[in-house]
Each structure stands twice: as structure tokens, then as C-alpha cells.
């Protein structure tokens, strides 16, 4: 700390991302990255874009990405906002839709970036406990909140609410902005995108990081009514006009157009998830029903912290949260079948006293 720090820099508690270690080679199942590479068409598009044109600024509107996303979802390009990773899009939502002192609400157990953004932008928040079964309690959000932010599927539980539940929720909360973070929706949940036409209070946020295997390029987007999108554009253009670079824009367009590859890798991940879940259940693990590319699991015999450390010592990285109510769980990203076989073999060893 120094005398030059602002009160903001002094008072915030930054988000702590999952480890990206370089000390040895791990089987990396800790940050929900895709175990498969991006589509070959994406790599070709990146190569094409790696040329002298890099001297030129990118399109500040990322129009080609907006068009590709709007084609994919059959919505209007003006209903799409593109940003530098969905983390950035989520961050921009705070100054775009909330004043200092306004209140936002989200589940107590969810993506831990949400309270960090709220603190950074001076927005108050109320965190609502999950139900006993770890589902999001859609009936208990405070009536005086100006907005509600949920991840669907939720993280780190992987549990999704159905589209009918989401629609009821939107109907009951027409006076509130409902932001749904669909980072994991492509792994088996229902997207609420078809509802944006009917609900002006709905903003959906998605990312290319997980299901399209592009975490390294940082591309995310928001979908909603044109008035919501305009607020995001106004804030973004007051902060940084060129958030998405040329290479990322070219990659994003190729990724969204290659539906076959996308379906293939999402299908593989879902199958691996289900096989792994069955094996873990046979070993006595409690496995929450996941619609995401990770499993949230616990075991009566070994604590979450201990599982995390044992796996790390064995070269397998998973995520453990030292948070009340989930301290006994570990979150395991779904890797390849080979990686999951090694994981299951190690876990079986610990459980059976190896
Ligand atoms: C991974 C993740 C994000 C962030 O994705 P980026 O687009 O890589 O910034 C957002 N929300 C949730 C719930 C996530 O798990």
C-alpha cells in the first residue's frame, strides 16, 4: 500500500482466479477450460487475421461477431453486445444498470466474481442462501433489489433451473433487471435467449471461453433488449472503444459458425461427465446433478480440503472453495476420458485407503 492508493484500491478484495501453475505439468481440472482445442476453422481464421492489418484498430462495434451471434440465435444484431470475456461484460453491467448505493441480489453460493464487481462499483448486494439441495431459491430474492444476477447453470454447483422456472421468475420480477450468466448453458441446460423478445428485464451473458474452447482469447457477449444493449455500449465507449481485438473477432465468428465441431465437443464433454459421475457415485461420492462442464462432489470419508491436496500432490488440479456450506466439496472440470480415468483411479485409491 502507498499514499498514492485511492480508497477504492485500498478497500477492494480482488477476485482470486483458479491457479494457472507453471511449476510442473498437472492434469488441469480446476478452471473449467475445455479439454479440446478450438475448431480447426478458428485456428485458420486466426492465421488469416495474423497479417499486416494488425496495424489497424479493430471494429469497435465487433459487428462481424454481433452478426454471427445474432444469426446463430435468430435475433437482431442490435440485441447483442460483445466484450473482452464475459467477465468484462458482467463488470460493465454494474455501471450500466446500477447507481452507487443501489442493491443487487445473487445467490450466496455462486460465481465469486459477483460480489467483487459489486464492491468495485459501490453497488450494495444481498446474497440469498441456496435451498438444502443446492438449487437456487428463486422465491427468496429481496423485493427491494433493483436487479438479480444468477448463473444458470449455477457455479460451482452445476445445477440448472429449467426454462419454465426462469420464465415464471421473469414474470414475477418485471420491475427488476434479471441478469442470467449462461457461461455453462451449452453443456445441457436450456438457454433463456428465446425469452429476450418478451422480457425487457432480461439480459443474458454468454462466453466463448468454455463451450467454444476459447478461454485464451477473451470473448464474451450479452443478449437482450436493444435498450439494455445501448446502456452497455454507452458505458463501454466511455471506457475503452476497442475491447475486442481483431484476432479475437475473427476467431469468434469462425467458432460460432462451426456448429458441427461445437456440437461434437460439447457432446463428448457431456458423455464424459455422465460416465465420470456414475463412477464417482459408485465410490460413495455425493455428486450434484450437473448441467455444466464440471462436477461438484463430496465424500463422507475425506474432507474437500484433503481431497484437493491429495490430488494436487498426485499432479491433478481441481478447485476447492473454503466457503461455508461447500467446504467439503471439490469442483472437478470435465477433462478427456483419459484424464478422468486417472482422476477416478486416484480417488478410488484414497477412498479405499491407498
Ligand atoms: C468462466 C465463467 C465466466 C467468465 O468467462 P470469461 O468469458 O472467460 O470471462 C463467467 N461466469 C461464470 C459463471 C463462469 O464460470
UniProtKB/TrEMBL annotation:
PROSITE patterns: AA_TRANSFER_CLASS_2. Pfam families: Aminotran_1_2. One of its GO terms (molecular function) is histidinol-phosphate transaminase activity. InterPro entries: Aminotrans_II_pyridoxalP_BS, Aminotransferase_I/II_large, HisP_aminotrans, HistidinolP_aminotransfase, PyrdxlP-dep_Trfase, PyrdxlP-dep_Trfase_major, PyrdxlP-dep_Trfase_small. GO terms for biological process: L-histidine biosynthetic process. Residues 25-347 form the Aminotransferase class I/classII large domain. It is an enzyme of class 2 (transferase). CDD domains: AAT_like. Keywords: Amino-acid biosynthesis, Aminotransferase, Histidine biosynthesis, Pyridoxal phosphate, Transferase. PANTHER family: HISTIDINOL-PHOSPHATE AMINOTRANSFERASE (PTHR43643:SF3), HISTIDINOL-PHOSPHATE AMINOTRANSFERASE 2 (PTHR43643). Homodimer. Belongs to the class-II pyridoxal-phosphate-dependent aminotransferase family. Histidinol-phosphate aminotransferase subfamily. This is Histidinol-phosphate aminotransferase. It comes from Thermoclostridium stercorarium (strain ATCC 35414 / DSM 8532 / NCIMB 11754) (Clostridium stercorarium). The gene is hisC2.
Amino acid at each position: 500500500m502507498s499514499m498514492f492508493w485511492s480508497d477504492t484500491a485500498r478497500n477492494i478484495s480482488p477476485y482470486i482466479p483458479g491457479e494457472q501453475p507453471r511449476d510442473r505439468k498437472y492434469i488441469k481440472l480446476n478452471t473449467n477450460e475445455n479439454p479440446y482445442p478450438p475448431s480447426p476453422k478458428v485456428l485458420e481464421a486466426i492465421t488469416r487475421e495474423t497479417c499486416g492489418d494488425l496495424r489497424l484498430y479493430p471494429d469497435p462495434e465487433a459487428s462481424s461477431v454481433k452478426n454471427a451471434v445474432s444469426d446463430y440465435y435468430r435475433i437482431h444484431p442490435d440485441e447483442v453486445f460483445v466484450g473482452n470475456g464475459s467477465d468484462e461484460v458482467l463488470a460493465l453491467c454494474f455501471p450500466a444498470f446500477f447507481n452507487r448505493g443501489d442493491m443487487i441480489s445473487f445467490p450466496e453460493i455462486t460465481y465469486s466474481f459477483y460480489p467483487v464487481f459489486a464492491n468495485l462499483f459501490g453497488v450494495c448486494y444481498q446474497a440469498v442462501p441456496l435451498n438444502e439441495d443446492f438449487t437456487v431459491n428463486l422465491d427468496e430474492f429481496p423485493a427491494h433489489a433493483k436487479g438479480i444476477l444468477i448463473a444458470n447453470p449455477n457455479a460451482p454447483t452445476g445445477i440448472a433451473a429449467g426454462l419454465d422456472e426462469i420464465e415464471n421468475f421473469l414474470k414475477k420480477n418485471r420491475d427488476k433487471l434479471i441478469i442470467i450468466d449462461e457461461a455453462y448453458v451449452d453443456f445441457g441446460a436450456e438457454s433463456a435467449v428465446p425469452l429476450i423478445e418478451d422480457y425487457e428485464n432480461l439480459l443474458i451473458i454468454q462466453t466463448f471461453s468454455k463451450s467454444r474452447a476459447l478461454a485464451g482469447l477473451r470473448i464474451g457477449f450479452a443478449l437482450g433488449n436493444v435498450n439494455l444493449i445501448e446502456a452497455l455500449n454507452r458505458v463501454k465507449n466511455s471506457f475503452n472503444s476497442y475491447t475486442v481485438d481483431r484476432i479475437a473477432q475473427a476467431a469468434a465468428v469462425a467458432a460460432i459458425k462451426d456448429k458441427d465441431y461445437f456440437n461434437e465437443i460439447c457432446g463428448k464433454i457431456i458423455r464424459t461427465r455422465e460416465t465420470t459421475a456414475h463412477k464417482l457415485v459408485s465410490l460413495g461420492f455425493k455428486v450434484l446433478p450437473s448441467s455444466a462442464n464440471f462436477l461438484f462432489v463430496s465424500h463422507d470419508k475425506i474432507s474437500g480440503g484433503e481431497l484437493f491436496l491429495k490430488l494436487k500432490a498426485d499432479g491433478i488440479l481441481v478447485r476447492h472453495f473454503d466457503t461455508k456450506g461447500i467446504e467439503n466439496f471439490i469442483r472437478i472440470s470435465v477433462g478427456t476420458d483419459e484424464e478422468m480415468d486417472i482422476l477416478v483411479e486416484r480417488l478410488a485409491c484414497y477412498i479405499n485407503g491407498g
